[in-house]
Amino acid sequence: MTQPSLTLGYVPGGTPAKWARIWAERHPDVPLHLHAVAAADAVAAVRDGTVDVALLRPAAEMTGLSVISLYDEITVAVVPADHLLTALDDIPAACLDGEPTLIPLDDVVDWAGAPGTPIDHRPETTQDAIELVAAGLGALIVPQSLARLYHRKDLTYRPITDAPTCPVALAFRAGEQPASVEEFIGIVRGRRANSSRGQAESAPKRTAREKTLAKQAARAAAGKVARKPGRAERSRRRG
User: What is the value of pTM for the model shown?
Assistant: First the structure.
């Protein structure tokens, strides 16, 4: 019998460590395999079953997949460490007007009308584009996680204050899910270890009369039920 397992794909800049740790704590007998995938291949990897779930940046075409939005990354400009823009802590998009820019073939920033003047050459990957930034060919606009991933001492980056953010999501095949996928979705959504999607609903609030009857029953069980006064007792009260 095949041992159950779960394969989590993640694109460059994705950070699956937190969820992998929680999974290992809750399901030590079910291995979680981490599978790095290129940004351009992530959707296909989920569709064809190469991975069960994937941490990715949503593409324009996500047919057949279910997607849970996780967070948005800020967009930054990567430039040489001695570039004039490094005099600022962050920059408006207008600061890049006229600046040569690199747009790799695996570009993940969805920004129509992005600032800058794209150079003719389009590098194959973002990592290749980083090398060209270091060579002084232009600036590169990327999510902050990619700027950190490919960090070099001769480069730096600045947040672009009015740029669109870059969303990150969890994707899996649409339809009924295996228990392992459902459990991972719960972890990502913050479900606690002792919680359950199938927990019974809490009991409805009791009426005032139901509360009174419950109190009387509790007193009776403790031998403290109030008795109606007998004749002798009523006579004493009259006297």
Answer: 0.76
List the chain pLDDT tens, one digit each, 239 residues.
567 899 999 999 999 999 999 999 999 999 999 999 999 999 999 999 999 999 999 987 899 999 999 999 999 999 999 999 999 999 999 999 999 999 999 999 999 999 999 999 999 999 999 999 999 999 999 999 999 999 999 999 999 999 999 999 999 999 999 999 999 999 999 887 766 543 433 334 555 655 565 565 555 545 544 444 444 444 445 55
Phi, psi of 66 (to 5 degrees): -100, 140
Residues 6+ apart with CB under 8 A from 113: none
Are 86 and 158 in the same domain? yes
Looking at residue 160, the DSSP 8-state letter turns out to be: B
Three-state secondary structure call for residue 27: coil
Stated as kind and residue range, the H or E segment containing 53 is: strand 53-56
Residues spanned by the domain of 156: 75-164
Q: Does residue 79 sit in the same domain as residue 156?
A: yes
**Long-range residue pairs from 62-66, CB within 8 A, at least 24 positions apart, any chain:** 62/171, 64/173, 64/174, 65/171, 65/172, 65/173, 65/174, 66/171, 66/172, 66/173, 66/174
Exposed, middle or buried, 59 (CB in 10 Å: 0-12/13-18/19+)? Answer: middle
Residue 214 lies in a domain: yes
Nearest CA-CA partner of 71 in 138, 160, 143, 158:
143
Yes or no: say if 10 and 35 are a contact pair by the CB < 8 Å rule: yes
Residue of 112, 107, 74, 108 lying closest to 91 (CA atoms): 74
CATH number at residue 33: 3.40.190.10
